[in-house]
Amino acid sequence: MLRMVLQRLMLGVITLGLVSLIIFAALEILPGDACTALLKQDAQGQRLLNCQKELGLDRPAYQRYLSWAGGAVQGDLGLSAHSNKPISSMVADRLKNSLLLGVTALAVGLPLAFAAGILAALRRDKALDLVLSSLAIGAMTIPEFVSATVLILVFSGWLGWLPGIVLTPPGAPLAKFFPEIILPVAVLAMVMTAHILRTVRSSMLEVLDSDYVRMATLKGVPYRTMVLRHVLPNALLPAINVVALTVAWLLGGVVVIEMVFNYPGLGRLMIGAISDRDLALVQSIALIVATVYVLVNLSADLLTLVANPRLRTAVSKRV
């Protein structure tokens, strides 16, 4: 097991290195740089050269990448080329806000998804199953910006119950974001619940159709006991990885939601950094999101290994 953990950690480090390199190369390919974004019409001649020298953009690309990567390893993300502020302080507030949005959506959607998925499987092909499955498919197929727009129209425009956009500044206390985050959380929870519900339902049905469950039924094992002690523990294991991917997506993949609701999170900060050609800031955010993906997936793998005795045995035999 220790060997597997070390292998996954090594793979994670390699992944983070590749992500930073790919982001750097992609931005290098684009025309212009941070100076052209800052100076706009004046980005020419000696003024452009002075700006590039001041920001260190006159150095070869590999030197700039190694300098940034070396600083990131030591916890120094550098300065923003656009605002000349420490990137760590800029990212801290936005990361805190994105975590607030993600954790709240998880707290709402996760119990709902598991409960609905279990009920749908236990009522297979019945009215409840058909309704829940249809709602889940609808939530998965409708784009997030459409769902967000509809919720804003109904609850903010027509009913006037909730604010349609977030006006609280990035550095405000987290409590200040309520009730402005109710609609963004609703959209995120809707999408997350749909994906996890479908996974839980499929896993439950697969286990319910297995031979050992049929044998237990023939032997007269009470249905409730069979579901609680045998079906649920085996059926919920595949959902762990889906939950892990969802957690990572909630942090780095909610750019559309943040843009629609004007939410000051990490996604909006990254969009602004790309527009300003702020290479160091873009790379830092990408690295943070990639780190979350790696850590969350590693945690999911370890949790699956601990919860599944057969996997522990297989790993022990390989080691």
Q: Tell me the CATH superfamily of one domain.
A: MetI-like
The gyration radius over C-alpha positions equals 24 Å
Biggest beta sheet summary: none
Give the CATH class of one domain: Mainly Alpha
Give the helix proportion (percent range).
over 70%
The CATH architecture of one domain would be: Orthogonal Bundle
The geometry reads as: globular
Order of helices and strands: HHHHHHHHHHHHHH
Oligomer: single chain
Q: Briefly note the structural class of the backbone.
A: mainly alpha
Ranges where pLDDT stays below 50 over 5 or more residues in a row are none
Total helical segments: 14
Question: How many DSSP-defined strands?
Answer: 0
Mean pLDDT, nearest integer?
82
Distance between the termini: 8 Å
CATH topology of one domain: MetI-like fold
SSE blueprint:
Elements: H1 2-29, H2 34-39, H3 45-55, H4 61-73, H5 87-122, H6 127-141, H7 144-158, H8 182-208, H9 211-218, H10 223-252, H11 255-260, H12 266-275, H13 279-307, H14 309-318
Helix pairs in contact: 1-13, 5-6, 5-8, 5-10, 6-8, 7-8, 8-10, 10-13, 12-13, 13-14
Provide tags for this entry.
319 residues, mainly alpha, MetI-like fold, 14 helices, 76% helix, 0% strand
What can you tell me about this protein's structure?
By secondary structure, the chain is mainly alpha-helical. It has a domain at 87-275: MetI-like fold. Helices cover 76% and strands 0% of the residues. The chain is built from 14 helices and no strands. The chain has helices spanning 2-29, 34-39, 45-55, 61-73, 87-122, 127-141, 144-158, 182-208, 211-218, 223-252, 255-260, 266-275, 279-307, 309-318. α5 (87-122) runs antiparallel to α10 (223-252) and α6 (127-141) crosses α8 (182-208). The longest helix is centred in the first third of the chain and has 36 residues, at 87-122.
